[in-house]
Specification:
mainly alpha, about 65% helix, about 0% strand, elongated
């Protein structure tokens, strides 16, 4: 109700507009559980670079509307990386990516 009452006057004049505005406002809240599961299941594709994987991961994480500590977020991201790429990351980071 607070959201609705805070809308500028005459912005919603039909029931269809109300449905659309409500769906737009609250859609992510209904999808957030599925999206959270999606990020925890994400893995790097065989033909995908680390950079591309990270770029694909970020929008999913933002859509999930979950807040993870940076260390937890890093673990979720790295969990989806292939072992051979993890070895390379370990070497590049001096063994300090865990």
């Amino acid at each position: 109700m607070r959201w609705f009452m805070g809308l500028p006057g005459h912005i919603i004049t039909t029931w269809a507009q109300m449905q659309q505005a409500s769906n737009n406002k609250y859609r992510d809240y209904f999808r957030s559980k599925d999206t959270k599961e999606e990020i925890f299941k994400m893995t790097i594709r065989n033909d995908e670079s680390l950079e591309d994987y990270e770029e694909r991961f970020q929008p999913s994480y933002k859509r999930a509307r979950c807040k993870l500590e940076p260390e937890s977020l890093k673990l979720v991201l790295l969990r989806g990386v292939r072992e051979d790429l993890l070895d390379t990351l370990h070497l590049l980071a001096g063994g300090d990516i865990d």
